[in-house]
Design brief:
It is built from 34 helices and 41 strands. It has seven domains: about 90 residues, no CATH class; about 90 residues; about 130 residues, Cathepsin D, subunit A, domain 1; about 325 residues, Nucleotidyltransferase, domain 5, CATH 3.30.420.10; about 220 residues, no CATH class; about 100 residues, no CATH class; about 110 residues, Nucleotidyltransferase, domain 5 (2-Layer Sandwich), CATH 3.30.420.
């Protein structure tokens, strides 16, 4: 009998986009195993109980079958919450991938009715129609919707889709309303909505006539009115009831609220009127809103009529002198005039003042003019000009369309959108960025098929380089379709490989062969390798005459078009010129969608792919976006992120969005655009605005990388080329796929992008980033953290994030007051006070996310004089070996390990010297005092670490702990029967023992503490605990470094150093000179590597020690060796160091030492020594060059034994102090001669005997 497999092939397992097929196959498997009813919850309770008794493991089997047929990620996602219940697991997956909701049914209805059957792709379109219908049928459930309701909604949808053109908008709005309210559109409601719209339209036509009639009636009434102290006989009331004669008889009633121009009418103007009767502001255009909540509500007007507001939110208006924000503003599309509530101005202490008989102004409480307006129409009409328009006569939506399309000419814009009424207008951006020379006369032969002619040109070198380090733009254009591809190169030599790959790919796409290639005579095209390639595949290479680029007009003019579009996009959006690669990428994308005059105004996209392109998704480059968060920190956290639109992704309708907080670029479909908001323009014009956005720094900047800062843009005028003929730009190539800005990207519709994680964090020093062609893609895309932190007090309180910095300064001064750091004193000639300065820094968590703004007041300690202002400054620092021992001891004894942080630790120290400071900036509690006496330590003092360690030591001894003599930063309990161990690293305390809670209570009486709970992250190390062992890992920190240098995706080698590493020591200066632009700061990267080695990676000890020899003058070969080591690290970054598990020694009270030496292993005379100390895991290790020259391998090994014995003795003493237990030691070596010498300590010639 054939065994029926319960596991699907890998390609059929649930991957997220194959749910229906997976569900059918799973039903077959589960039915065969008689488990389908159990998994779906349809099994009778009695039958289920009986089957459970007969087969107790069947539920586990059903759960396992479902799990193994999902990919690893999905199985992990759903199985954790299912608690081994197959029904819960099956239901969770079904609801997640196929929720039977009205919204989903409506979505597939939309897809079905928006399907256009095309002659040349009929089969493909029908297959899509069938798939959408199949999905819709699978979502139909009697519990959610009856078939009759579904049929009714189908007819309603058909009605909406077939409305006349002038009613399309109301139909789309109705669908949107149904989607927001989560209801299925019914035919009855649809007809009522259309009827109401027709009634409103008829009322609008009669409104003016009614108002005119009312004016005439009022004029007639005025003839019969009474005046003061006079009764008109023609009036309709008696003399006794005349209010003019008897004012006391006038009835008292509330005057109804009226909006001056609040009447129902199609929006025709964008004027704003101050309305004294409006309780809130009302606008008729969606473009004004920064954020909006779509929620209908009825508004009653002054004439008693009802008008519907579709939503409310916050708008932002730019007037002559200021940008004003109005919250709780109503969105009423049918409002004739935009109304601004006068009450809102008056509540904020604004004053309305007449300038003359025709004009007025609004001034604030400081008598500064806010906005002006006109009285000419009888209303308070504000002077307002939309900021997004460079020509005020252009309607908002037309200019936004012009921006989104990449600033094409009016002729091309009309061709792209033939159904829009586009007027003639002048665009200043286009005029500024598109100045050209007179055209060259002459024609190029017209291609008759795809790939008959491929026109190409290499443009550059470009200054500044792109953020990915590219300096050349390589553009290829098909002569038949005029569809273009672009690539970005750091050197010309890359052209050959890119061109070969491109030809292979586009030939496969188009089912045509390349016949002719047209280029100039550059060596990147005219070389033996490409000539051999052309001859092999029968391709003719046509070159232009020298200095005659006009003979290749399509490539030359194509470059000019791309450059002009990119310039316009950068200038119009205010983006920094270092983002020109993104702008050029978007420009080429738009060129392929724009009708081309060279092919009779056909669209290149249509000619290449034989189908019409969609233009509905186009958006202005650099505009504000709101994209969906992939992960929420909390249930009530915001679900959206603000970002900047940087172009279009490779996949269908996906967008490239830059996170303003991290500089990270993601590709997503879930995004909302604010097409009239350009944050970078705002950052330029209003640098003090609290809402600032990150701008990518110039690639030549040499500052450290950190996460979330904001800086003003540099001028786009710096964007130049080395040639005046071709001022060039860069674009990303299709050869690489990434979520970050990177070299070599272009849009290829058929391909899918491969996302990669972006981990950003603090890895900086100001002199660590240098210009180089290997500059990291991710590195170049990040903003400079430290350079964007304020340098001075005035820069902080007047620049971006001023409010946050003020709060940080206030918090720091409060800390000073709480700790009684200083007292005011009188100044005299004997007092020489020290100056102070503010240091500002954004703090990030272990994931690189912005956590808080930190302001710290520091003394300028460099002005201190030794012997007067300070004496002793030494303060001990704990060894990482001691921390590993603490973790090991706690785990062996099953003690909980916890962590605490001391708030403002250094402010608790007391200096022994008498010190004075000047009054700090921002301190106003004692305005008359200019000098202050320091009672506590202040940051920046040279002796502050010593002062803090002294007070902390005294406190811990008072609590009941004793410092180890071997390591004064490791403490143990004075009561040996109640052990507790504590490790100190400045203000971080890591401890474990039998009285953790008591210790925390006691220390809180001395210092302000932050209880961090169970230790998880300390000193850049992730600490994970389980019953078997404790693991230390630095994968996030390592990945952050590898990503910075673009090594995270590199193939790791098998060894930490290259095979020829021994030759690196003997390099001659004339043989291997340093490159003019080093790839990175050698000293900094090696320092980061050394820290990783000391913490968790003993396997890299030799590599780090060996490369440290070349710190002073590294050559190219040394850089390559260090890159090789980093590549090795990329393959071991997930490895962890295990503590608390005795896998080597047979004794629980034995310390093991392992030592080795490499005498004769290199070309130099001194040997390297290596040692490792093992006690329930690796406690310590070191690798270094020996200080003396060994004359034999025995001597070299003996020297290594001596050094290892010292470490072994130190560890033994430390364990004895902390546990009061003796342990034995065993030292291992692989050299018998060295062992014999060590075992017989007598004089040996040539060996320096050491005790």
């Amino acid at each position: 009998m054939v065994e029926y497999s319960i596991e699907l092939a890998e390609k059929y397992k649930l991957s997220g986009n194959n749910f229906l097929d997976w569900k059918v196959r799973m039903k077959s498997i589960l039915t065969f195993k008689k488990l389908y009813a159990l998994a779906t919850g349809t099994e009778n309770a009695e039958i289920a109980s009986e089957r459970d008794k007969l087969d107790p493991e069947r539920r586990d089997l059903a759960f396992e079958i479902i799990c193994i047929n999902c990919n690893v990620k999905i199985a992990a996602q759903f199985s954790a919450e299912a608690n081994n219940d197959p029904m819960v697991l099956w239901t969770s997956i079904d609801k997640y991938y196929q929720p039977k909701t009205i919204q989903n049914q409506t979505t597939y209805l939309k897809r079905i009715f928006s399907t256009h059957l095309q002659k040349h792709k009929l089969e493909e379109t029908l297959n899509k129609l069938h798939e959408n219908t199949r999905q819709l049928c699978s979502l139909i459930d009697d519990k959610t919707v009856k078939p009759s309701i579904l049929l009714d909604s189908v007819v309603a949808m058909w009605t909406i889709r077939n409305l006349p053109e002038e009613y399309k908008t109301i139909g789309e709005l109705w669908l949107k309303k149904c989607e927001i309210e989560k209801v299925t559109p019914s035919l009855k409601d649809t007809i009522e909505e259309l009827h109401a719209y027709l009634v409103r339209t008829e009322e609008d036509d009669t409104t003016e006539k009614a108002l005119a009639a009312q004016r005439n009636e009022n004029q007639n009434k005025s003839k019969n009115r009474c005046s003061n102290n006079y009764h008109n006989p023609l009036a309709q009331h008696s003399e006794e009831d005349c209010w003019k004669l008897h004012p006391e008889k006038r009835p008292k009633f509330d005057k109804p609220i009226k909006a001056l121009l609040a009447r129902k009418s199609p929006p025709t103007i964008s004027s704003f009127v101050l309305d004294s009767g409006a309780t809130t502001s009302m606008v008729n255009q969606l473009e004004f809103f920064q954020s909006i909540e779509m929620k209908e509500q009825e508004i009653e007007l002054a004439d008693g009529s009802i008008i519907k507001a579709l939503g409310h939110g916050t708008i932002q208006l730019e007037f002559q002198n200021i940008i004003l924000t109005f919250s709780n503003t109503l969105y009423i599309p049918s409002l004739a005039t935009n109304l601004i509530s006068m009450t809102m101005f008056l509540r904020t202490h604004h004053i309305i003042k007449l300038l003359n008989k025709d004009e007025f102004e609004v001034i604030d409480k400081d008598m500064r003019q806010v906005v002006t307006g006109s009285l000419a129409s009888g209303n308070l009409t504000l002077y307002y000009s939309p900021k997004v328009l460079s020509v005020s006569t252009i309607p908002d939506n037309i200019y936004t369309l012009h921006q989104a399309a990449g600033h094409p000419s009016i002729e091309y814009l009309r061709k792209m959108f033939p159904n829009r009424n586009i007027p003639q207008f002048d665009c200043i951006t286009c005029s500024t960025c598109k100045m050209t020379k007179s055209p060259f006369s002459g024609n190029f032969p017209q291609a008759t098929r795809k790939l008959e002619f491929l026109h190409m040109d290499l443009c550059g070198p470009i200054s500044p380089p792109s953020v990915s380090g590219a300096q050349y733009m390589f553009k290829v254009l098909d002569g038949y379709s005029h569809f273009a591809w672009t690539f970005f190169l750091s050197s010309k030599s890359e052209t050959k490989g890119i061109l070969k790959n491109l030809i292979a790919r586009i030939e496969r796409q188009s089912n045509n062969k390349v016949t002719n290639i047209v280029s100039d005579n550059g060596t990147e095209f005219v070389n033996s390798e490409l000539q051999e390639f052309f001859n092999q595949y029968g391709i003719s290479h046509l070159t232009t005459a020298p200095y005659t680029p006009q003979q290749n007009p399509f490539a030359e003019r194509g470059n000019r078009t791309t450059i002009n579009k990119a310039r316009c996009l950068l200038k119009d959006s205010g983006m920094d010129s270092s983002l020109w690669a993104e702008a050029a990428n978007t420009a080429v994308y738009l060129e392929n969608l724009t009708p081309s005059k060279n092919i009779n105004f056909e669209v290149p996209f249509k000619r290449w792919f034989d189908r019409e392109p969609s233009l509905k998704h186009l958006q202005p480059f650099g505009c504000l976006t709101i994209d969906l968060k992939q992960k929420l920190n909390g249930k009530f956290d915001e679900s959206g992120n603000q970002g900047l639109f940087l172009g279009y992704g490779e996949t269908h309708l996906s967008y490239r969005i830059m996170d303003p907080g991290t500089g990270n670029v993601k590709i997503t479909h879930h995004v909302k655009f604010i097409p009239t908001e350009f944050p970078c323009l705002k950052t330029k014009s209003t640098p003090t605005d609290s809402e600032s956005f990150i701008l990518v720094p110039n690639p030549t900047d040499t500052s450290p990388i950190k996460t979330p800062p904001i800086v003003q843009n540099k001028s786009n005028e710096n964007f130049t080329s080395s040639t005046q003929e071709n001022p060039s730009l860069d674009q990303n190539s299709s050869g690489e796929k990434s979520n970050s800005i990177h070299k070599g990207y272009s849009w290829v519709p058929e391909q899918e992008s491969i996302p990669q994680n972006e981990i950003i964090g603090d890895v900086g020093h100001p002199n660590n980033i240098l210009t180089y062609q290997r500059r990291s893609r991710h590195h170049a895309n990040l903003a400079d953290h430290l350079s964007l932190d304020p340098k001075t007090y005035h820069e902080a309180i007047n620049g971006p994030y001023s409010q946050e910095w003020k709060e940080a300064i206030k918090s720091e001064l409060n800390n000073m007051a709480n700790h009684h750091v200083w007292i005011p004193t009188t100044s005299n000639h004997n007092i020489k006070p020290l100056s102070t300065t503010w240091v500002f820094k954004r703090k990030t968590d272990e994931d690189g996310n912005l956590s808080k703004f930190k302001a710290r007041l520091c003394v300028q300690g460099f002005n201190q004089k030794e012997g007067i202002d300070y004496s002793e400054v030494f303060s001990p620092t704990g060894r990482l070996s001691s921390l590993r021992l603490l973790l090991t001891l706690c785990h062996i004894n099953q003690y909980p390990i916890e962590q605490m942080d001391i708030h403002c630790a250094f402010l608790n120290g007391k200096p022994e010297e008498i010190l004075h400071i000047h009054q700090p900036l921002g301190y106003t509690d004692h305005p008359d005092a200019s000098v202050f006496l320091l009672k506590k330590s202040l940051y920046g003092l040279k002796q502050i670490p010593r002062c803090w360690h002294k007070i902390l030591k005294e406190t811990l001894i008072a609590i009941g702990l004793t410092p180890c003599f071997t390591d004064p930063c490791l403490y143990y309990s004075q009561n040996r029967e109640q052990p507790l161990w504590l490790f100190v690293h400045v203000d971080d305390l890591i401890f474990g023992g039998t009285w953790n809670a008591t210790f925390k209570t006691k220390i809180k009486t001395f210092f302000k503490m932050e209880d961090l709970g169970t230790v998880k992250y300390a000193l850049g190390i992730c600490i994970n605990q389980n019953k078997e062992y404790i693991s230390l890992i630095q994968d996030k920190f390592i990945h952050q470094i590898l990503t910075e240098f673009s090594i995270d995706q590199a193939r790791p080698p098998m060894a930490p150093l290259p095979s020829n590493y021994k030759e690196l020591k003997d390099l001659k200066d004339h043989e291997n000179k340093i490159t003019s632009s080093p790839p990175f700061n050698f000293r900094r990267v090696l320092g980061l590597l050394q820290y990783i080695v000391q913490c968790t990676c003993p396997d890299l000890s030799f590599a780090a020690s060996f490369l440290s020899q070349f710190l002073e003058n590294p050559k190219d070969a040394h850089y390559k060796a260090l890159i090789h080591t980093l590549k090795y690290l990329s393959g071991t970054q997930t490895f962890m160091l295990k503590l608390g598990s005795n896998l080597v020694s047979h004794s629980k009270t034995e310390i093991l030492g392992f030592t080795d030496s490499d005498w004769g292993g290199g070309t130099e005379r001194k040997s390297f020594s290596g040692s490792l100390i093992y006690f329930y895991g690796a406690l310590g290790w070191r690798e270094h060059k020996q200080k003396v020259v060994a004359l034999s391998s025995a001597e070299a090994e003996y020297n290594a034994l001596t050094e290892s014995a010292q470490d072994l003795a130190w560890t033994k003493q430390l364990i004895f102090e902390t546990t009061n237990n003796e342990v034995s030691c065993t030292l291992h070596s692989d050299n018998q001669s060295a062992i014999a010498i060590a075992s017989n300590p007598v004089y040996h010639h040539g060996v320096c005997m050491q005790n």
